[in-house]
Amino acid sequence: MPDNKSAQVKRGTSVLDASRRARVAIRTRCGGNASCLMCKVVAADGGAGLSAPGDNERHKLGGLLADGYRLACQAKVNGDCTVAVPEDPLKAAIRAQLAKREDEDLW
C-alpha cells in the first residue's frame, strides 16, 4: 500500500476492500466486477499471501500477470502480502508535462 500503510483484514477479503480499510484509494468504476480493469495493483513477492488468479482475472490481465499485476477487486488476501498501487496514468501524464514545462522555463 502507498506510504507503507497496512491493514489487518480477514482471510478472503479482497485487496480492494483491504485498501479501503487502510484509507488507500484505488480507482474503480465497475463496483468490483473485474470489468473496468482500473483497480490494477502490483503484488510483491510473486503474489505470496494472495489467492491464485481466477479464470476471469487471467483472461482480463493476460500477460500483465507475469509482471505481478492483479486486479484488486479479484485478488483475495490469504495471508501476509504486499501490494503497490501504480500511479494513475492521467496523473503521471500531467506530472510529466509539468516537469517538461519547468525544464523549458529554466532555459
UniProtKB/TrEMBL annotation:
MF (Gene Ontology): iron-sulfur cluster binding
SUPFAM superfamilies: 2Fe-2S ferredoxin-like
Name recorded for this polypeptide: Ferredoxin
Any single Pfam family the record assigns to this protein: Fer2
Coiled coil: none
Domain annotation 2Fe-2S ferredoxin-type: ranges: 1-89
Annotated transmembrane regions: none
